[in-house]
């Protein structure tokens, strides 16, 4: 079994751990599949009342392990890979229980977006957030940009997406991307205490409170993911993306046409 994403159950609290610290918890296809399986397992467990998602080592997750892209998806089209990924990660939206994310170090790309889809984010004071996709010739495609837009508005979301710049923990707190910033050595304990408080509340009350919040936010998130699926598939087949790859391989300036 894949061990670089781990599920631990402790009473009413489930903990998902990104356990690939040698690569700053970068995800490959096998880790993705295990994460999706874990989310399904949690959804079927009637005893779970809150979920903690955390990472071992220096970072929550540095995003995608680019050296492993396509390994488990050989023979699938880019559109099929994205569809599989969207179906898997949308299990976050389908859970009856909240997910609290403990974020230290880097949260980059799809991993940052996945955290944005969760209910609550708590950062250590050394946390950093980034969406670098445009600089790699593609777009963010995991649904988190819609949530970032909802939280921060167009200006901040556009800045992060189009420039790929870094957001610090202090700025993330100011914009509401995270709800709390704590010292690194207090992160796990803080999130655990929050999860225990939620787990101790009447389950039906938590479900109904989250239902109201979900109805406010999820239609736009799901709509954005559908648009991302179309847009990323188009980008992947575009002349400009082919030129992007050729220019990098040939170490020359790119000549883009917008098509």
Structure in words:
The chain is α/β, with parallel strands linked by helices. The protein has one domain: Alpha-Beta Complex (2-enoyl-CoA Hydratase, Chain A, domain 1), CATH 3.90.226.10. 49% of the residues lie in helices and 15% in strands. The protein has helices at 29-44, 78-89, 91-94, 109-116, 144-152, 154-163, 169-175, 187-200, 203-236, 239-250; strands spanning 5-10, 13-18, 50-55, 99-103, 106-108, 120-124, 128-130, 167-168, 180-182. A six-stranded mixed sheet has the order 1-2-3-4-6-9, sandwiched between helices. The chain has a three-stranded mixed sheet with strand order 5-7-8. Helix 2 runs antiparallel to helix 9 (203-236) and helix 4 packs across helix 5 (144-152). The longest helix is centred in the last third of the chain and has 34 residues, at 203-236. It is globular.
* Number of DSSP helical runs: 10
| CATH topology (level 3) name | 2-enoyl-CoA Hydratase, Chain A, domain 1
Counting structural domains, the number is 1
Shape: globular
In brief, what are we looking at here?
The chain has helices at residues 29-44, 78-89, 91-94, 109-116, 144-152, 154-163, 169-175, 187-200, 203-236, 239-250, and strands at 5-10, 13-18, 50-55, 99-103, 106-108, 120-124, 128-130, 167-168, 180-182.
Set out the fold topology:
Blueprint: E1 5-10, E2 13-18, H1 29-44, E3 50-55, H2 78-89, H3 91-94, E4 99-103, E5 106-108, H4 109-116, E6 120-124, E7 128-130, H5 144-152, H6 154-163, E8 167-168, H7 169-175, E9 180-182, H8 187-200, H9 203-236, H10 239-250
Parallel strand pairs: 2-3, 3-4, 4-6, 5-7, 6-9
Antiparallel strand pairs: 1-2, 7-8
Helix pairs in contact: 2-9, 4-5, 5-6, 5-9
């Amino acid at each position: 079994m894949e061990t670089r994403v781990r599920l631990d159950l402790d009473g009413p609290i489930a903990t998902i751990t990104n356990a690939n610290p040698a690569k700053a918890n970068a995800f490959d296809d096998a880790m993705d599949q295990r994460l999706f399986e874990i989310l399904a397992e949690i959804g079927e467990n009637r005893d779970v009342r809150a979920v903690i998602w955390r990472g071992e080592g220096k970072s929550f997750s540095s995003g995608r392990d680019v050296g492993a892209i396509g390994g488990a998806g050989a023979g699938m089209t880019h559109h099929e890979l994205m569809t599989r990924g969207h179906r898997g990660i949308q299990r976050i939206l389908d859970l009856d229980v909240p997910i609290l994310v403990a974020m230290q170090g880097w949260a980059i790309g799809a991993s940052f977006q996945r955290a944005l889809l969760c209910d609550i984010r708590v950062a250590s004071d050394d946390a950093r957030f980034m969406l670098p996709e445009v600089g790699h010739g593609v777009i963010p495609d995991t649904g988190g940009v819609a949530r970032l837009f909802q939280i921060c508005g167009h200006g901040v979301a556009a800045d992060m997406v189009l420039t790929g710049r870094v957001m610090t923990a202090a700025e993330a707190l100011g914009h509401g991307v995270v709800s709390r910033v704590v010292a690194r050595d207090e992160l796990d304990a803080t999130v655990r205490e929050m999860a225990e408080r939620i787990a101790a509340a009447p389950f039906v009350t938590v479900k109904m409170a989250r239902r109201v919040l979900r109805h406010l936010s999820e239609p736009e998130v799901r709509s954005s993911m559908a648009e991302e699926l179309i847009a990323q598939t188009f980008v992947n087949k575009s002349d400009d993306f082919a030129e992007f790859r050729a220019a990098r391989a040939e170490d020359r300036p790119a000549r883009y046409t917008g098509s």
